[in-house]
Amino acid sequence: MADDELLVLRHDRDGLSTLTLNRPDKLNSLTPGVFVALRDHLEAIAVDVTVNCVVLQGAGRSFCAGHDLAAISTGERAPSKHFEPETVDLLEQLPQPTIARLHGHCFTGGLELALACDVLIAATNTKLGDTHGQWGLVPIWGMSVRLPERVGNSMAKQLMFTSRRISGATAHEIGLVDFAVPEDELDSEVARMAAEILMNSPGTNRRVKLLIADRSERTRIDALLHERTLPHGLPEDMAERLAGG
Q1: What total number of domains does the chain contain?
Q2: How distant is the alpha carbon of residue 18 from its chain centre?
Q3: What is the CATH number of the domain that holds 152?
Q4: Phi, psi (rounded to 5 degrees) for 55
Q5: pLDDT averaged per 10 residues in sequence order, the chain, 245 residues
Q6: What local confidence, expressed as pLDDT, does residue 241 receive?
Q7: Quick one: 119 and 224 in the same domain?
Q8: CB-based contacts of 182, cutoff 8 Å, min separation 6
Q9: Which end of the chain is more exposed for a tag (fewer CB within 10 A), N or C?
Q10: Residues 129 and 228 in one domain
Q11: Do 25 and 169 meet the contact criterion of CB atoms below 8 Å apart?
């Protein structure tokens, strides 16, 4: 296995694909190489009909401490100009439901990755924050769009203007994460959510995700009319599930 492939690990079991950011000695900080490995996995998962749910997590003590500042200072480059934000977009656009498992640190670029997931589950002692302002950087991976979508414009401005770090518990209070549990319960909470998702029709889940994405491009009335046309068809397992009661 090439070194770049080791930067993000993939493990599949019973319809669940777990992607692990794998630079634990660097708190899983993000480099162009990490994004290359992550995109390879995302592109493969997107067309893999055996995968019905995806968990994104970090190895070691943290989910992700953000962009590797050393890579910025040395001028390390991704394969194309917008490779990193396009990879975050691919994560958001995966047809399968996605869960971000957050522990330790979840800062800036790491938070942008997490915000591209459908469900965010954090340990109560996780530290989250957007630190672009601390380093004189400007977000280009989606923070200015996805953070306000989660917490509203006013709270997003507070977090971005101040580079404030908040706990997983506080993140839950403001709606930044969906669940916050003690760290020793994090694995079981993620497993519970994944199991609930996997019990349902993967075809329904994929179509629901598409319909919700469609809504953002339409007025409310147009979205209602669009939904009733069944634009993405019916789930492949509908007849089987109905027959099974």
Answers
A1: 2
A2: 12
A3: 3.90.226.10
A4: -115, 130
A5: 78 98 97 97 98 98 92 80 97 98 98 98 98 95 98 98 98 98 98 98 97 94 96 94 87
A6: 94
A7: no
A8: 123, 124
A9: C
A10: no
A11: no
Phi, psi of 162 (to 5 degrees): -105, -15
Cα distance between residue 8 and residue 23, in whole Å: 8
Whole-number pLDDT of residue 1: 43
The pLDDT of residue 63 is: 98
Three-class DSSP labels, 73-134:
HCCCCCCCCCHHHHHHHHHHHCCCCEEEEECCEEECHHHHHHHCCCEEEEECCCEEECCHHH
Q: Which amino acid is at 236?
A: E
Q: In the block, which residue shows the tokens 């009909």?
A: 49
* Nearest to 150, CA basis, from 111, 112, 115: 115
Residues 6+ apart with CB under 8 A from 159: 129, 130, 147, 151, 166
117: its two tokens: 């997931």
Domain that holds residue 207: 200-243
Give me the residues paired with residue 17 across strands: 12, 54
CA dihedral for 211, 215, 218, 224, sign (positive or negative): positive
Same domain, 184 and 215: no
The pLDDT score that the predictor gives to residue 76 is 79
Place of tokens 């994944």: 194
